[in-house]
Amino acid sequence: MNQQVDPVTASVIQGALENIAVEIGYKLMRMSYSSIIRESEDFGAALVDDRGRGLAESAQSTPLQSGPIPGYVKYILKTLQARGDMVRPGDVIMHNDPYGGASHGPDVAFIVPVFHEGELVGFSGTTAHHLDIGALTPGSCGIVDAIDAYAEGLQFKAIKVYDRGQRNDAVWQILRDNIRASDLVVGDMEAQVAASRIGAERMEALIAQYGLPTFRAACQSLMDHAERLMRQAIERLPEGSWRAETFIDGYADSPDPAKRDLPIVATVTKQGDRLIVDLTGTAPQVKDRPINMPFTGTVDVAIWLTVRSVLLDTAVHGHIPVNEGLTRPIEIIAPKGCLANPEFPAPTIARFCPGNQVADTVMRALAQAVPDQVCAGIGNLKVIAFSGIEGNAHWVHMEIFEGSYGGRPGADGMDAVDTLYANTRNNPIEDIESHLPLRVERYELREDTAGAGRWRGGLGSVREFRLLSDGGASVEGEGHNFKPWGLFGGRDGTTARLTLRRADTGESIALPSKVPHMSTRKGDAFICEGPAGGGYGDPFRRPPKAVHDDLLDGLISRATAERDYGVVLNAMGEVDIERTGRLRQDQGGA
Known about the structure:
Largest sheet: 7 strands, antiparallel
Mean pLDDT: 96
């Protein structure tokens, strides 16, 4: 007989689970060695039940890290069962298999089981992006020339780094022997173990406080509640099916047309209180380049995040519990062998930007159903891995270079931020320059680039990095060939650019969005120019005062104000109301 739980007790347990997940995240940040975790917050933390169903995740981390943790756990359980092994008290399990629930290889999870009175009741887990994972070139991003999964670095499939409380020293030695900057990376891994153990202790104490039957009843109630919220939100949609198509650069400099200008297609269909997201039409997988996306761990998280954000916006609906219940009404279809559901051993390490484009494409499809609940096209991100050797020690830095949001009803797009499922932060200049041979010589908004609209798109940023010693760099990105899309009369945004300026010759070299590891010399500079989001709505309906304010702030030029918005200034630099009205009327504006 299933035990019932009152709503107040269930709500208290929900709050406790969420607080534990947040605590795990903050503990991990404070114990970590690398800025990618400590500053950029490229990590995840979550609590999962004994069947691998998500219960709560850390709100301050990226959805792309926390969201996959239930998938990690499910595949760990499946893998151990196939080996004839089992989960025991004191175990700590390491996992990063992109064909087994992981988002991609550098996102390594450390999972700690939770036992209560000898019974397995759940898991506490963390994931984090590690700065090196033993791949063919330094760094764990920009490995854009990997030909298969084996070229992407070390693979861990449910490896017990602690077995019944005993440290597996051989595994830890293998890590140190095969990873560059091993003190940094292994230090981060040990921080993950410690943070995950803290979460397990807190979860066990919560169960002891309320008793296992009440705890399990509360978890079931919370998942059922989240499912009802999602089904109700889907029911409010009009009946129908909506299709959208966008493109990624792929390998723009490749002579092979199967590797460049690749379509991402999403058809979203409402059936009662269910939603079907069908990615049929998406380009076939690229067998020997790593822009393929793991279906579990990347594609599913991108879709869940987008649907949840659009249909259950917390600004409208208040706090929404994030657990497996939210995903139950959503079916995802992706043909085997396409970019969004590759077959092993197709490489996947550079799946980040294509996955973000999946989210953007689903947003574009939903715009046809709920136009007042979406934004225009986003400017995708870029990651640059800088590296080198000083003395006998490797150094690695991963720069997450921001994108921007499109305009949305009632507000302009956000400037210079990570978008959609990313939710990471950029690295502070002070942190970069305090311990790396890099100098940031310029950091500013990229002006006069946003897609014009009733609500304009967000601006990208400009960062210029100068190397203070010889080293190398590789680049993983998107958005050099295709502009972020405008919506409902809004103009398209602006593509990204990347330039390498050589110190010895002064030559400026335009780089594509993906660059395999290349040698750099002291004094070389990378100039990164971020994309600008698309505009939302007719730009001639933008209030002249808002256009004037952007002009005074230096965000647009006088020529743009007149050409794109129909706003004319007089000799004093003020809005000429009469001429503006006439120009807008002549050009068909409101």
